[in-house]
Design a protein that fits this description.
473 residues, mainly alpha, 21 helices, 61% helix
Length: 473
């Protein structure tokens, strides 16, 4: 049987208002940490790639070619500052802050404007319960989409569907289209949300509104997959073939061992909340929802484990893939479990622990990213004034994890430190670039060669036009 009386999300439970006000403090802390660790967040892979192109004066980046253009929204201020020739460090701070502000704005609109404190609490928990290394890997459209979509659901919670209202059709369609331009994995978030609110009737006033959004989202995804499918997304989805490759040997993978360890460390709130939902549904006798919940969570877990089975996937990227679990678990926690807990001190205590431990995990995770910067800084100072392609083994590049971003990272770090702009590439196989030894007026990056004339001198003052790149194995 279904839950007898699911919380409708419209009445004002004092706990949700308390959680909202506490969340304002948490977002202030996250914003502060975004400034403190702005270089750890910005001089990292996709972030460094983005900022390099902003400083170069272009914004036609991987965001657009991957058809995830909504990630340009939190980057807007950084783009404007770069166009205004603001200092590079200011551009990086704005880039780091933009992502924190995006979540904060969705949170504030949901709580202060829409007065939907339960949905604001859901946004807060989405952003916190699995947060650690993903705090530093910021050009990530999935959590942005989760916050945005929850805000949209909150905005229609009390509404009735009016087939004759053009403005309502327009709003719902645009909301679905925008949601589709965040991240491909949003399809799991939206599908689960539809299932959850359909089964637990009474939370939303009119489910037809959500289904219109879902239809617009699905049509947009079909359009994207037909006309805008990017190589990056195709490459990311290639792991699905492992479902056939590994059949029937799906167990004993590195990814499963990693996840089991993570479930008692960085993901321990996901684990505890998962168990809480299981106990709640079992006690309510809602075996149908219990079975569906377990099947969805475990099915998604196995999908990710099989698609990314080995240690080649960095932890911060692997964490990102599991973020939809936050939605799967938090929705029943917020709308089913919490209203049944009568003890105010217990609910407030759990909330306080979730917030405190999220901040602690961020602080504990920073060291590896700070170590990356220290390692790259040492390389920059060792090769100041030189143009080099370095063999990964020659420089013991283990702290970096993924090498493709090193030209962008070392360049940004050098100008951030007030040093001459670095011309450094670290590569597993430097021998495939013998042609670089003929170049003396260009910057070499992994996938391109930029003439110095293409790079604005206020950011990239390359003065050495006589020396050539050398390969060091």
């Amino acid at each position: 049987m279904r839950s007898e009386r699911p919380y409708d999300g419209r009445s004002v439970d004092p706990f949700y208002k308390t959680a909202y006000h506490a969340g304002l403090i948490v977002y202030l802390i996250l914003t502060t940490l975004s400034v403190i660790f702005y270089r750890e967040r910005c001089i990292l892979l996709d972030s460094a790639y983005d900022i390099f192109h902003f400083l170069r004066g272009t914004i036609l980046l991987m965001n657009i070619t991957r058809s995830r253009i909504m990630s340009l929204v939190p980057k807007a201020v950084a783009i404007v500052l770069a166009r205004s020739k603001a200092p590079a460090n200011s551009v990086m701070v704005a880039y780091s802050l933009g992502f924190a502000f995006f979540h904060f704005i969705c949170f504030v609109i949901t709580g202060s404007v829409l007065k939907k404190y339960s949905y604001a609490t859901a946004i807060l928990l989405f952003n916190l319960i699995a947060l650690s290394e993903t705090f530093y890997f910021i050009p990530n459209e999935l959590p942005l989409g989760m916050s945005f979509f929850t805000m949209i659901v909150a905005s229609i919670a009390d509404k009735k569907f009016n087939p004759g209202s053009l403005s309502q059709w327009l709003f719902l369609s645009v909301a679905g289209i925008i949601t589709a331009f965040f991240h491909p994995l949003m399809i799991f978030v939206l599908a689960y949300t539809l299932l959850f609110f359909t089964y637990n009737r009474g939370i939303l006033n009119d489910l037809k509104l959500l289904f219109v959004i879902g239809a617009a989202f699905l049509l947009t995804m079909i359009f994207k997959s037909t006309f805008l499918m990017a190589h990056y997304d195709m490459q990311s989805m290639s792991g699905l073939q492992n479902i056939i490759t590994f059949f029937p040997h799906y167990f004993g993978l590195y990814s499963e061992q990693w996840l089991l360890t993570k479930c008692i460390t960085g993901f321990f709130w996901l684990t505890l909340f998962f168990l809480a939902v299981l106990i709640f549904l079992y006690q309510k006798g809602d075996i149908r929802q219990l079975s569906g919940f377990v099947a969805i969570v475990l099915g998604y877990v196995m999908l990710i484990c099989i698609s990314y089975p080995d240690a080649a996937t960095p932890t911060f990227y692997r964490e990102d893939l599991y973020l939809p679990l936050s939605v799967f678990i938090v929705l029943p926690i917020v709308f089913l479990v919490i209203p049944e807990i009568k003890s105010g001190w217990f609910r407030n205590g759990i909330l306080l622990l979730v917030m405190a431990t999220a901040c602690i995990r961020i602080l504990l995770a920073h060291q590896q990213f700070t170590d990356r910067l220290a390692f790259e800084n040492s390389i920059i100072r060792q090769y100041t004034g030189k143009k080099v392609v370095l063999g990964a083994k020659a420089v013991h590049s283990d702290p970096i994890q993924m090498l493709w971003g090193t030209p962008y990272e070392t360049l940004l770090l050098s100008i951030s430190e007030g040093l001459p702009p670095a011309s450094i590439v670290i590569d597993d196989d430097p021998d495939w670039r013998p042609w670089v030894e003929t170049l003396n007026k260009s910057l070499i990056v992994n996938w391109n060669v930029y003439s110095y004339t293409e790079l604005p001198r206020n950011y990239f003052p390359f003065n050495d036009t006589t020396s050539r790149y050398c390969i060091i194995k």
